[in-house]
Amino acid sequence: MLKRSLTVALALFAILFLITACSNGASGNEQTAEPAPKDETDNEKKTESVSKQVQLPQESLQKKDSNDSVEVLQGVLNQIGYDIDTTGTYDDVTTWAVTDYQIQQDNLPVTGVYDDATKDALKQSLENNASIEPGSGLEKSGKNSDAINNPHDILVLVNKDHALPEGFEPINLVVPDVRFPFEDFLPKKQMRQVAATAMEDMFRAADNAGLELYAQSGYRSYDRQDAIFAANVREHGEKAANNVSARPGESEHQTGLTMDVTSPDINFKLTVAFGKTDEGKWLKKHAAEYGFIIRYPKGKEDITQYQYEPWHLRYVGEEAATDIMEQGITLEEYLG
């Protein structure tokens, strides 16, 4: 009896063993056929990894800056497709790369300056593993020093030796919300957005100081400058005309970064007497706080090759404007 019971127990044990083995085999096959779903946070982790690896500079950077932050920026530009030397100096090539990148983005101010908006755009490009085609926005400059290859740069030097391309028209021309001595819309009311915003801030400050500034003449096309110069030649002769007005392509007004200003005290004219008005004196002291310089200062005619023009304001950004006005130098001297 005991022997029979033992035999039955062994048989039952064998059956249970086989059932368990089959169950495990089936489970193994199911795991092979249906792999576990991919972790949805994988991409987020990769993005976080990229962000941790690349710390974009926090401060604003522009041409002539030289520090470790510039070297980091140059490395980031190389990471998204550019091929520039990581020298740590914000040179013409770095300015070109930043400008080219800005042109290729939607709604990004095109200035050649590394600012908060550009930093945010670069961060997105890195996180999205985006690739940029260098030169598709702005062709890389050549070796001809007489030709301006990056007219979008807010520090672009325009003078009798450096001319703008005939077909160049600034991006984002707008009419600043400031006073003009005329009501009709004319193209000369326009400035580039970055300069227009700064001019609005400056005019508000002048208003608070009890002054009456008026904007008189901003953007001029190549063709318009050609007509103005030709008229001055007919009236004064070519030599005299070349001292008081620019040849087409050699006018800063074509950049969209310049505005001639005036006041009621001189009947809204553009004359050296403006420098002696309260408005003219205030501008000489405060224009740099808003990124503007008096482009053709008194006593620098041999460098600028133009007469003293206290009414001619040029936007270069606060950093450069402060250095230029505090040192009493010209843009030519600042850029070397």
TrEMBL record:
* InterPro entries, alphabetized: DD-CPase-like, Peptidoglycan-bd-like, PGBD-like_sf, PGBDSf, VanY-like_core_dom, VanY/YodJ_core_dom, Zn_M74/Hedgehog-like
Q: Which residues form the signal peptide?
A: 1-25
* Composition skew (Basic and acidic residues), residue ranges: 36-49
Transmembrane portions of the chain: none
Q: Where is the D-alanyl-D-alanine carboxypeptidase-like core domain?
A: 189-317
Composition bias, kind Polar residues: at what positions?
50-60
Any one GO molecular-function label of the UniProt entry? peptidase activity
Instruction: Tell me one Pfam family matched here.
Output: VanY
Any one GO biological process:
proteolysis
What are the residue boundaries of the Peptidoglycan binding-like domain, all occurrences included? 67-122
Question: What is the protein named?
Answer: Carboxypeptidase
Protein source organism: Lentibacillus kapialis
